[in-house]
Amino acid sequence: MTRTEIEFSELLDVAQLKAECDAMVGQFGAGSAELRPALLAVLKKASQEGRQKARELLAIDGGGRNCARRISWLQDQLIAILYDLVVTYLFPKQKNIFAVTAVGGYGRGTLAPGSDIDLLFLLPSKQQDGTHKAVEFMLYILWDMGFKVGHATRSVDECIRLSKGDMTIRTAILESRYICGRKALVDELESRFDKEIVTGTGPEFIAAKLAERDERHRKAGDTRYLVEPNVKEGKGGLRDLHTLFWIAKYYYHIRDSAELVKLGVLSRHEWHVFEKADDFLWAVRCHMHFLTGKAEERLSFDIQPEIAESLDYHKRPGLSAVERFMKHYFLVAKDVGDLTRIFCAALEDQQAKEAPGLAAVIGRFANRTRKLPGSLEFVNDRGRIALADPDVFKRDPVSIIRLFHMADIHGLEFHPDALKGVTRSLSLIDNQLRENEEANRLFLAILTSPRDPALMLRRMNEAGVLGRFIPEFGRIVSMMQFNMYHHYTVDEHLIRTVEVLSEIDKGKADDLHPLANKLMPGIEDREALYVAVLFHDVAKGRQEDHSIAGAKIARKLCARFGMSLKRTELVSWLIEQHLLMSMVAQTRDLNDRKTITDFAEKVQSLERLKMLLVLTICDIRAVGPGVWNGWKGQLLRTLYYETELLLAGGFSEVSRKERAVQAQTALRDALIGWSEKDRKTYSKLHYQPYLLSVPIEDQVRHAQFIREADKKGQALATVVRTDSFRAITEITVLSPDHPRLVAVIAGACAAAGANIVDAQIFTTSDGRALDTILVNREFPNDEDELRRAATIGKMIEDVLSGRKRLPEVIATRARSRRKKSAFTVVPHVTISNSLSNKFTVIEVECLDRVGLLSEITAMLADLSIDIASARITTFGEKVIDTFYVTDLIGQKIVNDNRRAHIVARLKAVMGGEVDELREGMPQGIIAPAGLRVASAPKKVKVTSGQ
Fold it and tell me: What is the pTM of this model?
């Protein structure tokens, strides 16, 4: 026996299983009702034990394709044994009447643990009574065994007829494989299929398969660098390799991919890459199916760590085990892309030789090859840049970079043969080329192109040029960050960042970024900005902070690019501080003057401020879909304008007290049509922080809201409004003040499924709280969003009034969303008295969950801490919440022991260690009858959650 046969025999003793089944028939009789469940139990046990053995062998040898072949062989034996039982004992007249064939992926002799079993029952033209019943019996047994069986029952004539009009059926039959039954029918189908379907239809099949692939890529995100890729259907996944093999089998009439080397389509090295990629992807897919117990094709965050462990990856400095595994995955996906380009180039050349007119089917270009102006190395081949001769790169390696520059200038696509030439010439990119002045000039021209720099950079990256030409970039190619915030690998993120910058540079983003669009034409050093944008994350995956390490790399690269010392320092500063503006805008109180002065001290100049704003926008936009929103844009604009005012020397010298008096007068004057008594009463309701930080139009709106509530005798009232541009919904709450008010409002929002992004907390002079909560917008339509906001407001009112109990509504929400997180974030608390002149700033960082904000604010109330304002920021699975606080007499918290106690208590909350609702947590602040603070409840258990 061969080694393969020995391995297969470990999965199943075929003779023994046959004997057991025969014994069952003898025991119960062919017509007995007890036979079917008895056979089912035996076959099911054999299948489960065989698959478990396949899983054990996968863990031992790691061979993904071997595992898929073993499971396919196991399935073959089970079907063959079942067929023998059916035609021997149950339907003896059907023996050698029909054939059972595997089609689709199963037809290739590979089967993933959870995949469908695709079968074609091939019938003779003249069908006999009982054939369909025999087929049905087999299918019912397979279904009862737990398999998903895709099946068709057809004659040879039907297969041929349907193949002519249906490309899916044609592809399935292309990969059909005999399992058992009447072999002559399968031979007839193969012969007729080749003569009547395949012959002369190669271009038609190729065009259909490539179009199908493009549509599949579009649905899957059209990038191979999604951090939760689809291993089967995604770009660079198994289906792309299958597509290549389908085309090769159809066009070149081959059975084994190794024959592509003999045909000159792939080099031996490229064929080995094909084999390794196929084996790796199969290993990942089989592990996924075994781990999840189903046909899971999406490599999601929650299973990535376990797959990495199963494949024996270990952490290294700067990269965790799962990040190393995913980097390998994306490198393999990139290899699949390289193979696709090389294969398509060979295919087009072959078609052009055989029938020149057919090349247009693939290329979709009509013009003839002609000279390219300003170039002797390249030609325009039907709208694509191509090599003038095969030795272009050998004669002058700079032409590798020049190829992309010329393609950009002339707006040309790439001939597959040119990209194949690039891929096979990567060894020519050495230190001499990297230091070549012309090569670096051309690269900067590509990067700063007014046309589509991101497209050229992506082509360079996919061809392997970018990582070879700039080795520092090569280190982050295919690198992923194991978190929910970043949607793409680091290299794809950087290229997308350039894409956003180019969009702003062309003035196409006025609706999203009106300020950046206005500032961009006035930025003096456009080249420095592009360099900073492309390399801002180039040091990811190193032990040193990537911003600091990136600034060091930038100094080296800028010198290589021939940039002056002044410009080099500007690029380095932008990279080192690329997170500064985002973090200040999203986690600091922009109404606190010290926030602005501290930020301005770091920025120092208006030119830096402009460039940092644009870089920050590009960085956030390129993180992934849905990450950017109007609220973040508003925060950045506010920070920009406040800082611009300070850098330009425009901060008012008028004292805070005088400005507050002026603001109060302005509010009174703005209450047009009100009685003098009401104007005086409602303008004096507010303290300095409110008057100096809330825009006058909002002050007027709040005054109208409070007066209306007073007229109705409402102790508790809410009002909502939407803001589509900022993508937020504002909920303003008027209530008797209470130490735990913020905790209750936060809990009510969590129970209603609202994500809080900011909170403005004010107390009126008559002892009421006027709190404005900003939540992320969920619906594009204002009517739908207002209905949602009204529901949130009603939840807040119900909880504050005691009609609903906060612990119960949060627990219900948490149960509906409970799922073990794939991520860990070490809880961290920072308490600072240097970030604000008036407040102590408490910043907490931890893993997000339902009800978290409510728990944290409740704990702060427990600790007798008064929250003046809060900034709530979510980065994927991680939250960074910032609270500007004082003690109960309005002073900063300076005692070291007390600060240590606060840190310990908050860490306990963030770690989920507080299981009971703290004594004093209100069930309602206002009873329905009117103004009354509810009595302190008994301790009750609460399920944590944000």
Answer: 0.79
